[in-house]
Structures are given as C-alpha cells and as structure tokens.
Amino acid sequence: MTRGKQKIEAQRKNAERNQKSKGSQFEARAVALKVTCSICKVQLANSNQLGDHYASKHPKEKPPAESS
C-alpha cells in the first residue's frame, strides 16, 4: 500500500492517463467510414469492403464503379 506522497503522485498520474483516453468515438468513426452502400446505406471503410458487401448482401446487384 502506498501512503502520503506516493499515493498523491499515483492518483495524479492515473488522472492524467484517464484524461487522455476520453473522447468521442463518433468523430473517429465518421473519419474512418468513407464509402456508403447506395442500396442499404451502410457505411464502409474502403471500396474493397464495398465489393465484398455487394457480393454477400446484394448478389443480384452490381457494385458501383470505383470512383477514386
């Protein structure tokens, strides 16, 4: 068990560590998901995932041409 100054220092370090990890994951998700399926409006990270998505979820439809 820590006492006195060690305890205060440990609490301060833990508070700093916890402060850095806080933040919204919605912003990071919005940045990462750039491609959207035109049929079901699912957001995907890249065109390869869009091709796989069309193959598994919409097999009768053709995936859109790669615009990038």
From TrEMBL:
<keyword id="KW-0539">Nucleus</keyword>
<protein>
    <recommendedName>
        <fullName>C2H2-type domain-containing protein</fullName>
    </recommendedName>
</protein>
<dbReference type="GO" id="GO:0005737">
    <property type="term" value="C:cytoplasm"/>
</dbReference>
<feature type="region of interest" description="Disordered">
    <location>
        <begin position="48"/>
        <end position="68"/>
    </location>
</feature>
<keyword id="KW-0862">Zinc</keyword>
<keyword id="KW-0479">Metal-binding</keyword>
<keyword id="KW-0963">Cytoplasm</keyword>
<feature type="region of interest" description="Disordered">
    <location>
        <begin position="1"/>
        <end position="26"/>
    </location>
</feature>
<dbReference type="GO" id="GO:0008270">
    <property type="term" value="F:zinc ion binding"/>
</dbReference>
<dbReference type="InterPro" id="IPR026939">
    <property type="entry name" value="ZNF706/At2g23090_sf"/>
</dbReference>
<dbReference type="InterPro" id="IPR013087">
    <property type="entry name" value="Znf_C2H2_type"/>
</dbReference>
<keyword id="KW-0863">Zinc-finger</keyword>
<feature type="compositionally biased region" description="Basic and acidic residues">
    <location>
        <begin position="1"/>
        <end position="19"/>
    </location>
</feature>
<dbReference type="Pfam" id="PF12874">
    <property type="entry name" value="zf-met"/>
</dbReference>
<feature type="domain" description="C2H2-type">
    <location>
        <begin position="35"/>
        <end position="63"/>
    </location>
</feature>
<dbReference type="GO" id="GO:0005634">
    <property type="term" value="C:nucleus"/>
</dbReference>
<dbReference type="InterPro" id="IPR045230">
    <property type="entry name" value="MBS1/2-like"/>
</dbReference>
